[in-house]
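For reference, the entry.
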Amino acid sequence: MTSTRREQTAALRADRSGSGPTVAERPPARFPGASAAFALFGEVLLIGVLVTLVSLPVVTLPAALAAGIRHLRRFVAAEASQVSAFWADVRRAALPGALVGLVATVLALVLLLDIDLARSGLLPGGAVIEVVGWIGLAAVSVVVLSAAGAWSPERGWRPALRAVPALVRADIAGAAYLVAAAGFVVVLAWMMPPLVIAGLGCAALAVVAVPTRRRRR
């Protein structure tokens, strides 16, 4: 009797997690790993911690995001999502991704300097320059997040970056969501720096979730 109950409990757990056959006659979940909200929340926080650690040199942020995004994709699909796979992705993405991170960092600093100068009143047409600066920062954030989401060890960074314009054209609203995710990270870091950990995890989850959302036709 005890053995039967244990088997039933194990079957229910496998059903809920998506790792095994369903108990009831119904289609399998689209994202079985996301069925347990608390577990997903914990995984997002874990990825936030790992991405923060890897991106401490700043230029490694794209590689950290790429590895975190791939980890969360595996998790929500109820595939093997060991932390060791995250570190393996970091090793493969880090060196080429550092160049992407360096270019993105330089562009962001230049745009921030332009915004600061525009606000100081030293430049003619400061209001226009400030708007252009914010648009440029939004574009940099979309490129970094989209490229990180498109990266894979097989493709590398060049194809991932080349895919960004097509991804944006195919889903303008999705690009706006990514800008909002990047803005969310900045606001959290401004309010309380430790919250950037949760913000980076949420940004990685946004890259996973945005392309798969239901869209109006």
Observations:
- The CA atoms of residues 53 and 64 lie 9 Å apart.
- The chain has one domain: 33-212.
- The longest helix spans residues 83-120.
